[in-house]
């Protein structure tokens, strides 16, 4: 069986912000909304020498040969559909084309993850797009620093653009908590096991809270004994919770501290 052809392409991921809420209120209006966006996308994509390769749900995936065509198309679609509050993610990389014309690969996923991080009505692009864009386009891109995309390990530099020229505000981020293994001065296995158990119970409890992302034990426990700033940076956590377990005769004292960003440590006993 022949291997699927691989190539390099600029990928634009498009999503309609608030579509689910609109569909719940008025399904007919939501479908008409999607049809209008797709119609404009077809015209603009063809004008910039690209194609639509996926139309799952209310989203669109577009392919272009280079960063400039991808950016110009995204800007044009964003401007003509300003009321729709579209979100865009733009990335360039290696893709695999299937027999049906769909594109697959890590770099396609990167474009989709960038789109998920974009504020409604704005375009979020990767470093490689910024680097390969014409100077006139690159000047319009505002640096947003490094972010960690969902379900991906590496941090990446991103740039944002609002075609209206307004400063791009960062999306509200969900607090991310890492629970580090609790320390203990005791050397016996029973107390050390108890300390780990306390950490795991806390991690389980906070992972059930709404509005909070909790890093798994496998990742956070790898930073046993490490300083909190280093752990926070490596895990891309906004907050770190750690503590200690002390055992004296038949009494156990558990203390914990929470640190995050500019917030100091507070004892939770």
Give structural notes.
The protein has 269 residues and is an alpha+beta fold. It has two domains: 6-161, Nucleotide cyclase, GGDEF domain (Alpha-Beta Plaits, 2-Layer Sandwich); 176-268, 3-Layer(aba) Sandwich (Rossmann fold), CATH 3.40.50.10070. The protein is 35% helix and 31% strand. It has nine helices and 13 strands. The chain has helices spanning 19-25, 27-47, 67-80, 106-117, 127-132, 135-138, 189-206, 217-220, 228-235, and strands at 6-16, 51-54, 60-64, 86-97, 103-104, 123-126, 142-148, 155-161, 176-179, 213-214, 239-248, 251-260, 263-268. The strands form two sheets. Strands 1, 2, 3, 4, 5, 6, 7 and 8 form an eight-stranded mixed sheet that branches. A five-stranded mixed sheet has the order 10-9-11-12-13. Strand 2 and strand 3 form a beta hairpin. Helix 1 runs antiparallel to helix 2 and helix 2 (27-47) packs antiparallel against helix 3. Mean pLDDT is 84; it is low at 261-269.
Average pLDDT confidence is 84
CATH superfamily of the largest domain: Nucleotide cyclase, GGDEF domain
H and E order: EHHEEHEEHEHHEEEHEHHEEE
CATH hierarchy class name of the largest domain: Alpha Beta
Strand percentage, roughly? 25-35%
Tell me the number of strands: 13
Structural class label: alpha+beta
The radius of gyration is 23 Å
**How many helices does DSSP assign?**
9
Helix content: 25-40%
Q: How would you characterize the largest beta sheet?
A: 8 strands, mixed
Shape: elongated
Low-confidence parts lasting 5 or more residues at pLDDT below 50?
261-269
Terminal Cα separation, in Å? Answer: 63 Å
- CATH domain topology of the largest domain: Alpha-Beta Plaits
Number of domains in the coordinates?
A: 2
CATH architecture of the largest domain: 2-Layer Sandwich
């Amino acid at each position: 069986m022949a291997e699927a052809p691989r190539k390099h392409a600029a990928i634009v991921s498009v999503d309609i912000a608030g579509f689910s809420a609109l569909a719940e209120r008025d399904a007919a209006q939501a479908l008409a909304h999607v049809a209008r966006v797709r119609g404009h996308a077809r015209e603009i994509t063809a004008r910039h020498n690209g194609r639509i390769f996926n139309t799952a749900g209310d989203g669109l995936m577009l392919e272009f040969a280079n960063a400039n065509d991808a950016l110009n198309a995204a800007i044009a679609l964003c401007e003509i559909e300003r009321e729709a509050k579209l979100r865009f993610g733009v990335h360039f990389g290696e893709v695999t084309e299937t027999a049906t014309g769909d594109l697959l690969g890590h770099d396609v996923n990167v474009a989709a993850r960038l789109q998920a991080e974009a504020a409604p009505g704005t375009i979020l692009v990767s470093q490689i797009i910024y680097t390969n864009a014409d100077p006139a386009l690159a000047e319009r891109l505002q640096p947003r620093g490094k972010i960690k995309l969902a379900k991906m390990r590496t941090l990446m530099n991103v740039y944002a653009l609002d075609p209206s020229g307004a400063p791009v505000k960062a999306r509200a981020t969900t607090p991310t908590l890492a629970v580090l293994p609790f320390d203990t001065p005791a050397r016996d296995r029973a107390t050390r096991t108890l300390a780990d158990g306390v950490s795991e119970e806390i991690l389980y409890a906070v992972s059930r809270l709404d509005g909070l992302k909790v890093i798994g034990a496998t990742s956070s426990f790898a930073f046993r004994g490490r300083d909190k700033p280093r752990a926070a940076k490596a895990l891309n956590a906004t907050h770190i919770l750690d503590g200690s377990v002390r055992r004296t005769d038949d009494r156990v004292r558990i203390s914990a501290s929470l640190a995050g960003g500019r917030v100091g440590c507070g004892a939770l006993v």
